[in-house]
Task: inverse folding
């Protein structure tokens, strides 16, 4: 009887061993895993930890800092598109509410030059990939506003119906940059060049039956 | 005479205009919203094409107010004026128009170049929808909302149910067997005419200690014990420095299963650096806000994002995949140039409630992939000459094996360690 009891006790004890999901496991030579230098994505903020590598002089011991004041944004300058000679002008001076103005004046620089960029099919394909990554979950695969997120977020229009069908390339670009109605600005995620590529693809969706 | 004629003409013209105005006024005043199916379906098309981005036929605010019952709230002429040019109506000092304008954050409603009849058809559609909305909503909610979850939870329940049933059946069989045994023993004991040998069998007790004490049992037990302990020790030693399966609790219970799995948001949407830089990057809170400015605002987990934004204190996510400093890994090289799917290294991330380290991230694991993977030269002119060179061996025979990463230096130390 005693034996059986011991057996059961051991079994329970052994099976109750569980992996601690918050534990990285044994580390050999910690200095190699945790950078001594300040790194933004692998900070150890606990001062008692031997691998402490956070900057005590910054707010919240952040290793990453905002650029100093008066730093010029790269978007203040014209953007050279590859070796093609296409320059994407810094047209950011248009006010964020001026959809009519941007719709009239902004033109897609990717369309202007036809030597290097004559391969518009490739550009359109890149636009489609970008559309899939950044727009599809709300606007839907065919731009009908029926993406999985769009259905619960609400207020996502169809590209090929009503007034949206008539929106010009500049208008679309301005919308991605500053947001419109319920859509927020996507300027921090998509750079100007990629936005123009998306515009190319969205225009094909506008013109679908 | 001619003078009178002119005056008469003027008067009659004025009168005609006046009557027309009066007539149109009384007409629009007395206008009723049509309930004709053709008009309603025309209004439906117009509404869906032009209005749904800002309005819904419910009480919920999308961008502008929910339009359920708007035909009862406002008179038709007012609606027509408002839709045609809301700014004009606001500037004319209309009290209701100004109230609406201020209530919705002074957002101007776009002007629509509709004909009166078109606006009336839209209102007709809204009216017909408003009156049947409760039925539609009641039917739609269980389909849309809990559909996916219900199915999955049902699956779990049925699986558990089968298991429990199985165990129950086994227990019942056991009880029945024990009962039969006791009945037979009782019966045999009560009967007198049985031999001594049989009696011995009936009265014999199963002795466990005999099994324990047997040499064979001891031997097997010792062997198994050593095997288990040995395996555990080896695993522990080999696993030093490998955090496979590490799934730390994050400051915000963000679910990749929900966002990437159910709502199919692409990885690149939040991890913006993945095709452009070394690090895939952790999304900043403004990307969360692209949706969560309106969705699930009241959830305590979402409140943490709002707090981070308002205080400027960043969210301290716990790093899951940590490659030692001595190895250089570039996301853009692998995901953009190599065209590798995120899931190949990160595992089925779209099914993970809490992200865990899926791959061992050891050097052997890296190298093995470099040995096996063919170079992705599609649409990449950089590799054209190399690809051409690797289709033929030195003696002129065609090479069947495609160019692997190892062939272009994927095994060189200094490719990753520098």
Result:
């Amino acid at each position: 009887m005693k034996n059986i009891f011991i057996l059961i006790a051991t079994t329970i004890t052994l099976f109750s061993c569980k992996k601690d999901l918050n534990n990285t496991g044994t580390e050999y030579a910690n200095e190699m895993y945790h950078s001594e230098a300040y790194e933004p994505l692998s900070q150890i903020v606990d001062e008692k930890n031997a691998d402490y590598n956070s900057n005590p002089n910054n707010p919240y011991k952040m290793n990453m800092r905002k650029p100093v004041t008066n730093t010029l944004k790269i978007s203040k300058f014209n953007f050279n598109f590859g070796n093609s000679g296409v320059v994407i002008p810094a047209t950011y001076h248009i006010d964020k509410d001026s959809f009519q103005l941007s719709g009239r004046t902004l033109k897609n620089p990717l369309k202007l030059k036809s030597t290097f960029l004559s391969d518009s099919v490739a550009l359109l394909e890149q636009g489609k990939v970008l559309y899939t990554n950044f727009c599809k979950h709300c606007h839907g695969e065919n731009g009908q506003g029926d993406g999985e997120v769009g259905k619960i977020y609400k207020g996502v229009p169809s590209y090929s119906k009503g007034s949206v069908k008539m929106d010009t390339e500049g208008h679309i670009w301005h919308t991605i940059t500053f947001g419109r109605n319920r859509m927020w600005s996507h300027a921090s995620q998509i750079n100007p060049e990629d936005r123009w590529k998306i515009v190319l693809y969205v225009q094909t969706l506008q013109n679908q039956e | 005479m001619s003078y009178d004629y002119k005056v008469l003409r003027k008067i009659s013209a004025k009168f005609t205009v006046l009557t027309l105005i009066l007539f149109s006024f009384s007409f629009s005043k007395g206008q009723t919203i049509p309930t004709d199916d053709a008009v309603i379906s025309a209004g439906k098309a117009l509404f869906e094409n032009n209005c749904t981005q800002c309005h819904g036929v419910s009480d919920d605010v999308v961008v502008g107010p929910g339009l359920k019952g708007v035909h009862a709230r406002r008179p038709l002429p007012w609606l027509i004026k408002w839709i045609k040019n809301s700014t004009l109506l606001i500037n004319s000092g209309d009290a209701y128009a100004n109230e609406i304008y201020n209530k919705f954050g002074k957002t101007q409603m776009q002007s629509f170049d509709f004909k009166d009849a078109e606006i009336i058809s839209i209102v007709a559609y809204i009216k017909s929808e408003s009156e049947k909305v409760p039925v539609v909503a009641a039917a739609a909610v269980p389909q849309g909302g809990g559909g996916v979850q219900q199915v999955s939870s049902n699956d779990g329940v049925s699986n558990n149910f089968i298991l429990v049933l199985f165990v129950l059946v086994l227990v019942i069989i056991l009880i029945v067997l024990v009962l039969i045994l006791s009945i037979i023993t009782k019966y045999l004991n009560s009967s007198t005419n049985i031999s001594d040998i049989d009696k011995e069998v009936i009265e014999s007790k199963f002795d466990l200690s005999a099994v324990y004490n047997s040499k064979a049992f001891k031997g097997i037990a010792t062997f198994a014990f050593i095997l288990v302990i040995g395996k555990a020790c080896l695993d522990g030693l080999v696993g030093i420095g490998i955090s496979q399966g590490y799934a730390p609790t994050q400051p915000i219970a963000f679910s990749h299963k929900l966002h990437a799995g159910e709502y199919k948001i692409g990885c690149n949407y939040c991890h913006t650096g993945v095709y452009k830089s070394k690090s895939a990057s952790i999304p900043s809170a403004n990307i969360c806000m692209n949706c969560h400015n309106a969705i699930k605002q009241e959830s305590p987990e979402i409140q943490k994002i709002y707090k981070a934004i308002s205080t400027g204190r960043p969210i301290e996510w716990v790093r899951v995949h940590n490659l030692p400093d001595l190895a250089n890994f570039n996301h853009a090289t692998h995901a953009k140039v190599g065209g590798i799917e995120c899931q190949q290294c990160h595992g089925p991330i779209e099914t993970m409630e809490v992200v865990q380290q899926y791959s061992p991230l050891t050097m052997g694991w890296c190298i093995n992939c470099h040995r096996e993977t063919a170079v992705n030269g599609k649409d990449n002119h950089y590799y054209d000459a190399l690809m051409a060179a690797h289709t033929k061996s030195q003696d002129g025979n065609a090479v069947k094996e495609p160019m692997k990463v190892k062939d272009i230096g994927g095994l060189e130390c200094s490719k990753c360690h520098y």
About this structure: The longest strand of chain A covers residues 79-81.
